[in-house]
Amino acid sequence: MNTPLLDINLASQPFRRERATNAALAAISAGLLCSLLILTGLILHERSRAADLRRVMNSEAAQLRLLQNRQNHFSAILAKPANADVFATNVFLNELIAKRSVSWTRVFSDLQTVMPSAMQLLAIRLPQVATEDASGTNRVQLDMVLGSERPDAVIELLKRLQESTLFGPASVVSETPPNQNDPLYKYKVTVAYAQKL
Hints:
The protein is an alpha+beta fold. 53% of the residues lie in helices and 22% in strands. Strands 1, 2, 3, 4 and 5 form a 5-stranded antiparallel sheet that branches. The protein folds into 2 domains: 60 residues; 93 residues, Alpha-Beta Plaits (2-Layer Sandwich), CATH 3.30.70. The protein has 4 helices and 5 strands; from the N terminus they run αααβββαββ. A hairpin with an 8-residue loop joins strand 4 and strand 5.
């Protein structure tokens, strides 16, 4: 039995759209495959970084535990009754040495650079020495009583203290208005002061 031959005339039956669709699907598949490979590489890279970070964190945690154990050991030694008196004496002597090393001349000359002309320093208390900061500067707390005929002079003083590199945050603790016996506004001001000791 003879099979009939198919007679295809390309001029009468043009190129079908299936080939264009197949080519587009192949290009999309290739793009998706490339994206999959890139994402897989990124995931593996991030997993590697996460593993490295976990190792560093475990190492740091072990070091922290070791330091905490040492601190607890030293704290236990200092907490013994025999050592408590020595520790308290050392703290007292260190504070006394720090207070003695505060130069009153330097305190007054530094205050003079920020004090408005309309304000007077009426009293100052022995400074309280705080701990040394990262720059090696001891922080001293000054408690002062200031007087002025104008109430706005204290605002100018607070601005100058804030702008100064020698003084830290200042606060007005109390304010006393003038009366018949004393014509001055009085302010109790606390300020942090940095002096190289």
